[in-house]
Each structure stands twice: as structure tokens, then as C-alpha cells.
Design a protein that fits this description.
This protein is mainly α and about 290 residues long. It has eleven helices and five strands, in the order H-H-H-H-H-H-E-E-H-E-H-H-E-E-H-H.
């Protein structure tokens, strides 16, 4: 891709990032502090979609009128659509990331339909923008996860080593997704899936570049840290009554730490989906074009 076409396809953040990365901090502790702050800035930008969704949930929980003609669920759906359109229109997000968000929206909505009918969690009734028991804004919460992963892949120039074969990734992600449904009738095989994940990824590392020096982390640890972050966000979402688990019907309580396992499994599906959309997952090193 030529420099001109890259500039045309760059997001606004890419230009800001380029200026920040062109800085020349002095060596020593100042360089470390600058790299840490730049890392935080990039992470914050990668979380933009999810952060805006959480702000919407909290804002409407505290301030949305009870008897207004537009139901809160519908307002959240329309606001999420506006955010998505605005991010594309103002070049805060590119079309590659939008494709990831759409894929997560579809797979998440399908899961929501089943899980709400099975009683795993529920949403408050109200509004017309819903499918069955599920308001349409719920798909955007899954999309926020996909958006984050797609963004960090680009922003930090992530690549992998000892990456499993494409067919192995697809088989594992399919088994995880099916188990989310099948465990309601069949034995839950999540512990077997965890064992398979360890066997497949115990040697795998991902490399990322916060500033100029490349860093690395075991992929299994990276999955856990992202799952932990999502669990924190889930606690905020349930506090805001975006949805409720059975133990929260008579008052809010923290989401069970056992849900970390579910989010860990979701990380596998998420990373596989992003890798298949953007990359050849059969390679041991997966690189992405500059944001």
C-alpha cells in the first residue's frame, strides 16, 4: 500500500499517534514514564467504543426519566447506533474495525436470544427495538469487545509466535461457542476446553510495541487480563441495570468471579474471529497494517 493510500485510509487517531510516537523523550526514567503514558493513551483509545457504551449505561441509569415516551432500552440502542455512525463519519474508526463489530454484534445477539430464554440473565422490559426478550443495544456490548481487540491489534502492531494452526483455532472456537448453548442439556465441558487452551497456547506469546521497544507477554496471561477487565465492565453494566443475573433480581450484587471463566473462553472466540477477519491465522506470526 502506498503512503498516499495509507494516509487516506488512516483514522484521526493514527495521525495523533504518529505525532506522539515521533516525540524524543530523554533517556532514563523520563522515557519509561512517557512509554507508560503512551501505553495508557493507546489502551484508552482502543477502549473508546466500550467506554462510551458504559457511560451511556451509567448515565441513563442515574438520569434517564422514568415516564418519558422513549423507553430507555430504545434510547440506548439509538445512541449506540449514533456512536457507531459518528465514529466512522469522523474517522475515529475504520471500516475494517466496523466489520469486526458487525460480526460480534451478530454472534452476540444469537447467544443473547438463547441465554435469556434459558434464564441465564434477563433485561428489563420496555421499548420496541428488541428481538424477543433482548433489546438491540445488547449486541453493541459484544461489539465493544471486538472493537477493542481489533484496535489493539493495529495500534500496538501485535504479532504472535507459536500460533496454533487455522483449523485448530476454528475447531476450538466452535467448541467453545457450542458449549455456551449445549451445557444446558449436556455436561459442561469448559474444564476440558480450558485444558485444551493451555495445551494449544502454553508456548504462545504476543509481541506489542507501546512506543519504540517491542514488549511481549504470554498469550494465556493476556487473555486473562482482558477477561478481568471485561468482568469489571460487566459489574458496572449490571449495577446500571442494563441486565441482571438471577442473584441480582432483589438487589445488586457483584457478578460472580466464576464469570471470569466465561469471559476467558469468550476471549478465545474473539481473538479467533479477529484473526480470521484480518489475518491468515495459519501463520505463526500475524501482523496487521498500521492503523
Amino acid at each position: 500500500m502506498s503512503d498516499t493510500s495509507q494516509q487516506r485510509g488512516a483514522t484521526r487517531f493514527a495521525r495523533v499517534r504518529a505525532r506522539l510516537e515521533a516525540a524524543q523523550p530523554t533517556s532514563g526514567w523520563r522515557s519509561w514514564v512517557y512509554e507508560f503514558l503512551l501505553f495508557g493513551f493507546k489502551q484508552g483509545w482502543a477502549c473508546l467504543f466500550g467506554a462510551l457504551m458504559l457511560a451511556l449505561l451509567l448515565g441513563t441509569h442515574f438520569f434517564y426519566p422514568d415516564h418519558i415516551w422513549l423507553a430507555r432500552n430504545d434510547f440506548l440502542t439509538l445512541a449506540a447506533v449514533v456512536i457507531q455512525v459518528g465514529m466512522l463519519a469522523f474517522r475515529l474508526e475504520n471500516w475494517e474495525e466496523a466489520k469486526v463489530i458487525l460480526a460480534f454484534h451478530v454472534t452476540g445477539t444469537i447467544m443473547e436470544q438463547f441465554k435469556t430464554r434459558a434464564g441465564s440473565w434477563n433485561y428489563d422490559a420496555g421499548g420496541v427495538l428488541h428481538i424477543g426478550l433482548v433489546p438491540l443495544y445488547s449486541g453493541f456490548m459484544y461489539a465493544a469487545v471486538g472493537s477493542y481487540i481489533a484496535r489493539i491489534w493495529r495500534i500496538f502492531d501485535i504479532h504472535m509466535t507459536h500460533w496454533p494452526a487455522r483449523w485448530q483455532l476454528i475447531a476450538l472456537a466452535t467448541a467453545i461457542y457450542v458449549n455456551f448453548f449445549a451445557h444446558h442439556w449436556l455436561p459442561d465441558i469448559r474444564w476440558l476446553l480450558f485444558a485444551v487452551i493451555v495445551l494449544m497456547f502454553w508456548r504462545s506469546r504476543f509481541f506489542f510495541t507501546p512506543f519504540r521497544q517491542e514488549r511481549w507477554m504470554p498469550i494465556l496471561l493476556g487473555f486473562f487480563l482482558v477477561a478481568l477487565f471485561i468482568w469489571f465492565a460487566e459489574n458496572i453494566g449490571t449495577f446500571a441495570h442494563a441486565w441482571s443475573y438471577p442473584n441480582q433480581r432483589h438487589g445488586w450484587a457483584m457478578v460472580s468471579a466464576a464469570k471470569l471463566g466465561s469471559w476467558y473462553l469468550l476471549m478465545i472466540i474473539s481473538v479467533v474471529m479477529v484473526s480470521l477477519i484480518h489475518h491468515d491465522a495459519g501463520e505463526t506470526n500475524i501482523r496487521s497494517p498500521a492503523d
